[in-house]
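#lab-general

N.A. 3:47 PM
ok so I finally got the sequence cleaned up, no stray characters, all 261 residues accounted for. can someone with queue access submit it? mine expired

B.Y. 3:52 PM
send it over

N.A. 3:53 PM
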Amino acid sequence: MERKIIVCDVDGTTLEAGENIFKKEVKDAFNKILNEKSYLIVASGRTYRNLYKIFDKNNDVIYVAENGNQIVFNNKFLKINKFEYQKALDIIEYLYSIKDELIAILISTPYEAIYYEDKNVYIDEEESPRYKNIDLNGLISFLKDKDIIKISIFKENMDKRFYGIYDLLTKNYKDIEVFDANNKWIDVSPLHGNKGDALKFVLEKFNISSLPLYVFGDGENDISMLKLTKNSYCPKDALDKVKKIVSFQYNHFEDVISSIF
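B.Y. 4:20 PM
back already:
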């Protein structure tokens, strides 16, 4: 059977809202892809550490993490895309100034995720915070000399004020990328920090651009990679702007994989 390339988002695409682990049917679909000697590329806004964990530390998977800002295979970093340091600090300072309107700010580096919530800092999704009652100066001091690859903001209610932040960031910073991830998060990346550019890099790196390419996504951060193939899919509850550009919609990811193989 001809080898194929399957590229899939996680949240909202293969993992439903409220789920923390994949359903058995979805896991079986992933295993089918790998058992057929095809390429499985996971492209997500999540951290690499988180993806590696939920995929049971599978080193056969190519991980495109942090919306394409970090690419990892077999526990080796293939590519890191980072902010110019002062620009990242400027964005963080702006978000800090309106922190009372947000639930959480997430700052990602290649090695850790830094969650800022109600003046508490959580590191790497640990249950207990390492740092408490940290102010802006403390946060900036902690980030000194770190490579910042993504900044995200979360709010439970996606109101006009929240989308105003989206518009303001887009207007004031021309050389960044801003995405509605379709899960109450807005993600901010350095220029070229998108899944489409990351996927192109992977295809060239592994010399597999000639193989059939199937891409699955549901959010604005998936559009750049969905546009790379006519075999583009989204769930039926994806963002409207995603539905407009894909070739197919589906109810169950595993059913599509069965039809492909």
